[in-house]
Amino acid sequence: MPEPPSLWDQLTAPDRDASQQVTDLNGGLTPHDLVEALIGEGVTYENVTYTGDPRGAGLGAGFEAALGVDGGVLLSSGSLAGELSNVIGPNVNHAQTTQFDAPGDADLDGLVAPYATLDATTLEFDFVSDADQISFQYIFGSEEYNEYVGSAFDDVFAFYVDGENCAVVGADAQRVSVNTVNAGQNAELYVDNELPEAAHDTELDGFTSVLTCAAAVEPGESHHLKLVIADTSDPYLDSTVLIAAGTFQANHPPVADDQAVETEMDTPVDITLTGSDPDGDPITFGDVSDPANGELSGTEPDLVYTPDDGFTGEDEFTFTVSDGAAVSAPATVTVTVEGGSEPTDEPTDEPSPTDEPTDEPTNEPSPTDEPTDEPSDEPTGEPTGEPTPQPTEQPTDEPDDQLPDTGTDARLILVAGAVLAGVALALLRRARTTS
What we know:
Helix content is 12%, strand content 31%. It folds into 2 domains: 21-251; 255-338, Immunoglobulin-like (Sandwich), CATH 2.60.40.10. The model is unreliable at 7-12, 364-389 and 391-404 (pLDDT under 50). Strand 9 and strand 10 form a beta hairpin. It has helices at residues 7-11, 31-38, 64-67, 106-112, 408-434; strands at residues 21-24, 43-51, 57-61, 72-76, 117-129, 133-142, 156-161, 164-165, 168-169, 174-175, 190-192, 206-208, 211-216, 222-232, 239-244, 249-250, 255-256, 259-264, 269-272, 275-276, 284-286, 294-299, 302-307, 313-322, 331-338. The protein is built from 5 helices and 25 strands. It is elongated, with a radius of gyration of 51 Å. It is mainly beta.
């Protein structure tokens, strides 16, 4: 069990930051004042109740530089105002404590069982929203950081909307606490302020970044909100929540826009994601899926789609937008990838007109080359020796395939001439033998 700081240590602490102001319920405020400071647009309220020490609830301002939120409603398991404040800077005590000697809360006991809670502070009211969701922003901080991370001294708080705690983080909806948000777990949500560095102007030894509580509700119907915080296991080392002023409001979910783009095969295309929020809240883009036939590069909302090599057809991916409290339904980006440029000359199996021969080949001899039955030269008397025919070309004893390669027509003419010469020779030999 941690030892409480001495009263002397607390009373002799350096002066507090005068620019940071906290007024608790001992300073003239009422629980209605606290709720009135919370309420934003689209919400009405009634039936306000408060349970706890009046030093454990109040309004604060001037914390923008230290905590990222200027001010709002403060609820704590210890003192908020004056020299014993556990929130006003600078950090001068690693174990700031005020003991209220007050009971804990049954709902919170259920969250930390088998341990028990003490010094509970509770603010409750009924509300009606004109939208199907409410949201608000908050910060949790504690003197339990960092010495008691992972221990039984896990001071606890919850924001119950109709009995459901919306102060949760992560995919598994863990409650926000010293044990779930720290330097080793959900570290991106944690801000360290431990001595001796204590770079932030607040007494808190550690605190969360600005978080959002969001819950679904039925528009026009009455709902109940319970804001509660307490020590766990012992009454030492205070913890506090700051709920940003004016942020408890009806929230209309943002809208992500569908779109269609076109590109050519093997050609990247720029895509800018778009969306809007009916309440004018800033939006962020996320939950971008992978396209089936391409790749995305860049940072949302400015992306580049690159189709796979040679792919043509339709591809798509989805994304959502968030306003910090609600996430839109997914939108679809459809990408049409057209084929490449058409070739100027299409291939064909048919020869082009310029490739056709001007004269078709023929195996028929021309009319002027046709042979006749009569030899071209008649004999003139007795020969003095062996008569010889007089064809245009002298035949030889070489086979036909040794004829000069002068083309098909020329070959046919030579063959015909050789035949006629043979006929003439045979006639001469017959005439000679009969004379």
